[in-house]
Each structure stands twice: as structure tokens, then as C-alpha cells.
């Protein structure tokens, strides 16, 4: 495939987390019985007028600030005209020529290990629009049902430049965007419920040639499907061209059962929708003061937090990226560092990413439901840092905290008598007993068998029930044996 270049752009429909719809007061809550959350405005009854939801605009401003884009001082709502059973008005209110957010970019991490690289994906625009209703085919035989609960749900459609060159880059972008919209609190990111849906525009060309004809894969609601759909589409387009056929611009659907894309309709262009400014809505004017007020209320952004974690806590780029994947993880980590002390920042990172994450995974819990709090974890790491307990004993203490056997690491260490033995005299006496009882191993070590030394360390740790400081045991054993 090396003599082919892949060009991918992504459009994402992000459902904004407002309680009511973008142009009406109807609820946006998920899961209501069909058509119980569609009011007169959503149903397009004669004489109704749309009123813009301020909260949706606030979300758009937050997003514009988060990606370093221009928040347009003036943007305009337009009517996108098409006929579909779940679109009662016969048009969708969207933004066309003057969108609310222009430009900006998102930095993504692609791949892992030595092959990992960073890439900047440019964004073209983000515009506010309303969602359409839903046609239901599976519950009815020979007919379709229409549910208008979703009609009028606020969306921010986020459009990239065609900057991605593989399914891996597309998935990395989608994941970074998904994390960002959740981080700044404008979308719950629930892909099963349709809160975050991606359309991928895919084309292929030979290096140096103009852009190929693109096909748009609609409504991908999982990262796995996004990857599979793009990979299939790339291979399909290459085969078509190599067999002498032309690619037709089209909208296609991905079928997860077959792993294939199939054509839905030949692709429309903007002029097919007969866009024109919506006469019922005034232009949206966003003052500089409004943008500044919103900026002041924004959380520290993932990229800034990542750089700070590297500078302040000496973390690697990999660790800092993992710990800023979501705001709750980053907050948990920082609270653990506060409890453990700044010099224990690296061990805190390991405990959050390995032990805590492993336990949450195993018990299928969210971080919010973790039985071990950040303060408790920090308290445990502090006891490793000051040599009260060894790393091995710390794992036992963590288990006890996880199972609710004590309020703090200190309480469990005290109750179970787990304090590390650091008294040199006491350790020496135990080592003398171990050497006397294992004369054969001592002889093996003196005959040059390195493995015998490790076995003796094991015996000494066993004699102290794992409570001796392993470093001290090592040093004292070496001294005695030489």
C-alpha cells in the first residue's frame, strides 16, 4: 500500500450537555418513551418560533477556547433544506457561511513505545445545529416508526481539515476530541446513546497527484468501528482504482456484522441543500466580555496540565499523557501527590496507573466508585517513601484498603504489625541464623553460583516475614559473605 496515500477528514456530531433543546424548552434526557419529549417547536406546529439556548452557545465558546480557535463575534443560523420523515420542518437549523468557531487545532498522540509520534490536526470550523428525529425500523414489520424526542437536541458539529493519513491517526484524533469535550464539560461522550458520532471522509491517491474522490462513512459510534470502517474503505477504494474503475462521491454506511461499507446515496454538495439564513433567528452576537468570562471559568486544559506534570513532577511524556486522559484521573493523581508529598510524585503515578487502574478494571468500577480514595493512596505511598513498609508489603496494605479493612494505611500497618524492620542489629541476627541453617547454599555462592545469593536473600526475607528492608538485607548479606 506504500504507493498509495490516504487522506482522511472527520466530522463529529457532539451532543451538548444542556438540560433543554437548542431552540425549545423540551428536555434532552435520554431514554424517554417515544415522542414524549417533543414540544410544539420540535414538532414544527404552525406559528411556533425558535429561541436560542444560551447554554449551547456557552458550550461552543468553551470549545473554541480549548482548541485555540477564533470565537466569531457574529455568526448566523441557516436553514438546510431536505425532506426526510424524521425532520418535521422540512429543514434543519444549522450554521453555514458564518459558523460560531473558526480554525483551531488539536495535538494527538499516535501509536505506542518507540513508534509513537505527535501530530497536529487542524480544525476547519465548529458550528451549532439541531439534531433530527429518529426513524425506527426494527420494531415494526413493513413500516417505520418516527420518534421525535431527539429533534432539536443541541449539537456542535466539529470539522477537521483532511490532515489524517491512516485509521490509527483518525482513531487517535477521535479519542483526543472525545476526552477534550468531556474534560471541558460540554458533552458526556456517551457513544452508545449517540452523544458522540463521527463521520469519516476517506479518499486515496498516488503520491503527488491531486486529492482523490472522497466517500463519507456516516454515524460511527465506536472507536473500533471507526478503525474497521476506514481500513475497509481504504482497501476497497484502492482495489476499485487498480481495477480501472472510478470512485463515485457517495455517502456510505458501515455494517459491523460484515465489516464492510455499503453505499447509501450518491453524495450531495452544499448547493443541493439550498442553504439560506433562517429568517426567524437573529445573528448570534458574542461579545469579547462573554468570551473572557467563559475563559476565566475554564479548567486547566489537558495539554497545559500534561506539560505541568512533566515540569513539576518529573514525569515522562507517556505517564503525563496517561494521567491527563481524563480530568477525574488527573485530579485524583494530584490529590494523591498532595497526600504523599511532592518527592513521591513518580511512585504515585505508578500506583494510579498500575495498581489502582488494575483493581478498577478487575472489579469493573469507575474511578468515582473507587473504594480507595486519593488521600488514602497518597498516605500509603508516603509510607513506602519513608521506609515504613516495602513495596511488597504496600500491595498487601492496598488490598486491605480496597476491601475496607481500615481507614488509613497507617491504621492497617499498625493493626497487622507490618512495619518494616530497619534495625540493623535485628536484621544481622536473623541473617546469621539463615547462614547457619543454609551452609550448602553458602558453599554454592562461594563456588561462584550467583543464583545462590538470591536464594539466601529469599530465605532472609522469609525469616523476617517480608518485613525487613530488602536493600538492607542485600547489603548486610553481601558484607557477611565477603
How would you sum up this structure, described in words?
- The protein is α+β, with helices and mostly antiparallel strands and 482 residues long.
- It contains 15 helices and 17 strands.
- The strands form four sheets. Strands 1, 2, 6, 7, 8, 11, 12, 13, 14 and 15 form a ten-stranded mixed beta sheet that branches.
- A hairpin with a 4-residue loop joins strand 14 (250-255) and strand 15 (260-266).
- Helix 13 packs antiparallel against helix 14 (450-463).
- The longest helix is centred in the middle third of the chain and has 20 residues, at 223-242.
- The protein is elongated and about 95 Å long.
Question: What would you say about this model in short?
Answer:
The protein is α+β, with helices and mostly antiparallel strands. Helices cover 39% and strands 19% of the residues.
Amino acid at each position: 500500500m506504500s504507493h498509495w496515500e490516504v487522506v482522511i477528514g472527520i466530522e463529529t456530531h457532539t451532543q451538548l450537555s444542556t438540560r433543554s433543546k437548542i431552540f425549545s424548552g423540551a428536555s434532552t434526557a435520554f431514554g424517554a418513551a417515544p415522542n414524549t419529549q417533543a414540544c410544539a417547536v420540535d414538532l414544527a406546529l404552525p406559528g411556533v418560533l425558535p429561541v436560542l439556548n444560551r447554554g449551547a452557545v456557552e458550550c461552543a465558546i468553551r470549545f473554541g477556547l480549548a482548541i485555540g480557535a477564533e470565537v466569531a463575534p457574529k455568526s448566523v443560523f441557516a436553514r438546510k433544506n431536505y425532506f426526510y420523515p424524521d425532520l418535521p420542518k422540512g429543514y434543519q437549523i444549522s450554521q453555514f457561511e458564518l459558523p460560531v468557531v473558526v480554525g483551531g487545532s488539536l495535538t494527538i498522540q499516535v501509536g505506542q513505545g518507540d513508534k509513537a509520534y505527535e501530530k497536529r490536526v487542524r480544525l476547519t470550523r465548529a458550528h451549532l445545529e439541531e439534531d433530527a428525529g429518529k426513524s425506527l425500523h426494527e420494531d415494526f414489520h413493513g413500516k417505520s416508526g418516527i420518534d421525535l424526542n431527539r429533534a432539536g437536541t443541541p449539537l456542535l458539529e466539529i470539522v477537521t481539515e483532511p490532515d489524517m493519513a491512516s485509521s490509527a491517526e483518525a482513531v487517535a484524533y477521535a479519542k483526543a476530541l472525545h476526552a477534550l469535550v468531556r474534560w471541558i464539560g460540554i458533552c458526556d461522550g456517551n457513544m452508545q446513546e449517540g452523544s458522540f458520532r463521527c463521520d469519516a471522509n476517506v479518499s486515496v491517491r498516488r503520491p503527488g497527484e491531486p486529492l482523490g474522490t472522497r466517500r463519507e462513512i456516516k454515524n460511527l459510534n465506536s472507536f473500533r468501528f471507526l478503525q474497521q470502517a476506514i481500513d475497509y474503505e481504504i482497501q476497497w477504494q484502492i482495489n476499485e482504482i487498480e481495477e480501472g474503475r472510478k470512485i463515485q462521491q457517495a455517502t456510505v454506511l458501515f455494517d459491523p456484522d460484515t465489516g464492510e461499507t455499503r453505499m447509501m446515496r450518491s453524495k450531495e454538495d452544499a448547493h443541493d441543500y439550498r442553504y439560506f439564513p433562517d429568517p426567524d433567528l437573529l445573528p448570534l452576537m458574542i461579545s469579547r466580555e462573554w468570551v473572557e468570562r467563559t475563559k476565566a471559568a475554564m479548567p486547566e486544559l489537558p495539554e497545559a496540565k500534561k506539560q505541568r506534570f512533566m515540569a513539576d513532577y518529573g514525569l515522562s511524556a507517556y505517564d503525563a499523557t496517561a494521567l491527563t486522559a481524563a480530568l477525574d484521573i488527573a485530579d485524583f493523581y494530584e490529590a494523591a501527590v498532595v497526600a504523599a508529598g511532592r518527592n513521591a510524585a513518580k511512585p504515585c503515578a505508578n500506583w494510579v496507573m498500575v495498581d489502582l487502574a488494575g483493581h478498577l478494571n478487575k472489579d469493573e468500577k469507575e474511578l468515582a466508585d473507587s473504594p480507595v480514595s486519593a488521600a488514602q493512596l497518597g498516605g500509603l505511598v508516603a509510607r513506602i517513601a519513608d521506609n515504613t513498609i516495602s513495596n511488597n508489603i504496600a500491595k498487601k496494605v492496598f488490598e486491605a484498603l480496597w476491601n475496607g479493612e481500615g481507614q488509613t494505611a497507617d491504621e492497617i500497618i499498625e493493626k497487622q504489625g507490618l512495619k518494616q524492620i530497619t534495625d540493623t542489629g535485628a536484621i544481622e541476627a536473623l541473617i546469621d541464623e539463615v547462614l547457619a541453617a543454609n551452609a550448602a547454599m553458602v558453599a554454592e555462592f562461594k563456588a561462584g553460583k550467583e543464583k545462590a545469593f538470591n536464594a539466601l536473600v529469599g530465605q532472609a526475607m522469609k525469616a523476617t516475614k517480608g518485613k525487613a528492608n530488602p536493600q538492607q538485607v542485600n547489603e548486610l548479606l553481601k558484607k557477611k559473605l565477603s
